């Protein structure tokens, strides 16, 4: 065994699990400390659960630095996206979510609606849930009226700006 294949423990030298190097174990501990939420099915877990592995030569595996995959719904995305979605405010997240649901690329088939609603109730406050469903109604109404759902937010912001300017003149 080489130095990279063993670790010091209280009992002495011990082989590393599953062929991981010490660097892999350090990275694993860092990823286990970060809690994230799947943006599609709202599965909550540590970043280690979402990590994917790249196959290298000689059958070894390496942790992917940029790609993630939800262990529940199986949707894959970039790690950067996963972390940014976790930092979004509810209104921005709602627009992002419903745009992807009503957009051309839909993940609606992969999301269990019953699980999604219970997780939404568990992870978010009443006000956040209300904002989420308000955005849903805007997107649904825009789709039903024939508007492009992606333009809903821009139209609403333009109207609010118009109202502010109009109220300022009176």
What does this structure look like?
- With 170 residues, the chain is of the alpha+beta class.
- The protein has two domains: 1-87, no CATH class; 89-170, no CATH class.
- 51% of the residues lie in helices and 18% in strands.
- The protein has helices spanning 22-33, 47-50, 79-87, 90-102, 113-123, 126-144, 152-169; strands at 6-9, 12-15, 35-37, 44-46, 51-55, 61-69, 76-78.
- The chain has a three-stranded antiparallel β-sheet.
- The longest helix is centred in the last third of the chain and has 19 residues, at 126-144.
- The chain starts with 5 loop residues before the first strand and ends with a helix.
Structure at a glance:
The protein contains seven helices and seven strands, in the order E-E-H-E-E-H-E-E-E-H-H-H-H-H.
Question: Which secondary structure elements does this structure contain, and how are they paired or packed?
Answer:
Elements: E1 6-9, E2 12-15, H1 22-33, E3 35-37, E4 44-46, H2 47-50, E5 51-55, E6 61-69, E7 76-78, H3 79-87, H4 90-102, H5 113-123, H6 126-144, H7 152-169
Antiparallel strand pairs: 1-2, 3-4, 5-6, 6-7
Helix pairs in contact: 4-6
């Amino acid at each position: 065994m080489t130095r990279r294949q063993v670790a010091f423990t209280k009992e002495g030298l011990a082989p590393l699990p599953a062929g991981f190097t010490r660097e892999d174990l350090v990275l694993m501990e860092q990823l286990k400390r970060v809690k994230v939420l799947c943006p599609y099915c709202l599965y909550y877990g540590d970043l280690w659960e979402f990590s994917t592995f790249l196959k290298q030569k000689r059958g070894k595996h390496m942790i992917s630095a940029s790609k993630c995959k939800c262990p529940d719904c199986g949707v894959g995305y970039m790690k950067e996206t996963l972390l940014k979605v976790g930092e979004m405010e509810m209104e921005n997240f709602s627009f992002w979510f419903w745009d992807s649901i009503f957009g051309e690329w839909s993940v609606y088939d992969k999301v269990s609606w019953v699980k999604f609603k219970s997780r939404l109730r568990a992870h978010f406050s009443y006000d956040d849930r209300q904002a989420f469903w308000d955005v849903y109604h805007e997107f649904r109404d825009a789709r039903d009226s024939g508007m492009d759902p992606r333009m809903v937010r821009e139209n609403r912001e333009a109207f609010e700006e118009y109202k502010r300017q109009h109220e300022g003149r009176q």
